[in-house]
Write a structure and sequence with these properties.
Elements (H helix, E strand, L loop, with lengths): L1 H26 L4 H9 L4 H7 L19 E9 L9 E6 L6 E4 L8 E6 L3 E7 L2 E4 L12 E5 L6 E5 L13 E6 L2 E2 L1 E5 L2 E3 L6 E7 L15 E2 L3 E12 L4 E8 H12 L5 E12 L5 E12 L6 H12 L45
Parallel strand pairs: 10-18, 12-18
Antiparallel strand pairs: 1-4, 1-9, 2-3, 2-5, 5-6, 7-8, 8-9, 11-13, 13-16, 14-15, 14-17, 15-16, 17-18
Length: about 350
């Protein structure tokens, strides 16, 4: 009898132990990320968010964004928990070309900041010893999605968490965590609206309308630039803050802008065209802003257009006491014009009635 009771109790004990093991396995199955955190002491991405005050659920709040809107961005490194940290680099690339433009070159520390201007929609790329990993998975050689994009609950913009290992490695996605602060959009107008590349004026003036919620006096004027190249003059600006209008007026060196335009168009013949000028800057708290508008460009080099020939002819016939504009001794040029086509200064003869000009020594 005692032997039977012992066997019965042993059987019950084995059943209870097996049930407890099954229950434990069903309620706590460590993931690869949790295993990694338990072996190397690194926090998981969710733990990092919780510890740093970001109300983000890793499994539910990922946006799936792969491409970002064009603009002027401020990028901050929030954390870099990776063995490749001293070698990792970050770049942005235009969606149309995929050409990389470096933001961080490696060996950067937490808290480092950088600004960049993307004139068109763009993506981000993390470079590591294992390869280059893009926010667009189809560009990755391993075909995996190496970037998780979340909306930043504490500021305007995004938080991007990266995995820097081939085929996602340990899948912890906390190797490189950065915040991309989206810019404030402003409206901008330029004066003059038309720029002659032979102009000798001193300034180009920009009128920047600041949106509600911000003030013109809070703009860091030394950070204001045109196309990331020509800096605003910090001695000549005006900040206007009224109840319904916040306006910043800044000036840019005209010679510097003309030089930039000439380099951008690689020289030009006689033509008119427009260029897009982008104003960028930041407020005193580090929030970036940008605005875009166009300006007309006049470029008259080695031009033989009809209207310019009329101007040259009028200049040749003008009177000059010094005699430096004396006409040549032979007759060779025939001039025909219609009165309505001339809008310049008065000519010494009526347009439309002269068909031949006799030239001789005075």
């Amino acid at each position: 009898m005692k032997k039977a009771i012992f066997i019965y109790l042993s059987a019950i004990t084995l059943v209870l132990l097996s049930l407890s093991n099954i229950g434990y396995a069903s309620t706590f199955q460590p993931t690869a990320t949790q295993k990694q955190a338990s072996t190397d002491g690194e926090p998981t991405l969710q733990e990092w968010f919780n510890q740093n005050g970001y109300n983000i659920n890793v499994t539910e709040d990922e946006t799936g964004i792969e491409i970002f809107e064009a603009g002027y961005y401020k990028v901050t490194i929030l954390a870099e928990i990776a063995a490749y940290a001293p070698m990792n680099n970050l770049s942005w690339y235009p969606e149309s070309t995929g050409q990389l433009n470096y933001i961080f070159y490696g060996a950067n520390a937490t808290g480092d900041e950088a600004f960049f201007l993307a004139p068109e929609d763009f993506g981000l790329c993390l470079g590591s010893p294992d390869g280059f990993f893009y926010t667009e998975p189809y560009r990755n050689d391993d075909g995996e999605d190496h970037a998780l994009v979340f909306v930043n609950p504490n500021a305007s913009g995004y938080i991007i968490a990266w995995e820097d290992l081939w085929k996602l490695g340990d899948e912890d996605f906390q190797d490189f965590i950065l915040a991309a602060l989206t810019p404030v959009r402003v409206k901008v107008w330029y004066c003059p609206r038309t720029l002659n590349l032979k102009s000798r004026g001193r300034w180009i003036t920009a009128l920047i309308k600041i949106p509600e919620g911000y003030k013109a006096k809070d703009v860091n004027v030394s950070s204001v630039m045109l196309n990331g190249t020509v800096q605003a003059d910090v001695r000549h600006y005006k900040a206007v803050d009224l109840r319904c209008l916040h306006l910043l007026i800044v000036k840019f060196n005209r010679t510097a802008l003309i030089s930039y335009v000439k380099k951008s168009v690689n020289g030009c013949a006689c033509k008119r065209f427009t260029v897009s000028l982008i104003v960028t800057g930041e407020f005193s708290d580090g929030t970036p802003f940008y605005g875009r508008n166009t300006i007309r460009i006049l470029c008259f080099n080695n031009c033989h257009a009809f209207s310019h020939t009329v101007r040259k002819l009028q200049h040749r016939f003008c009177s000059c006491p010094s005699g430096t504009h004396a006409t040549p001794p032979r007759t060779r040029r025939v001039f025909r014009a219609d009165r309505r086509s001339w809008r310049g200064p008065a000519l010494p003869f009526p347009l439309g009635k002269v068909s031949k000009v006799q030239r001789s020594h005075p």
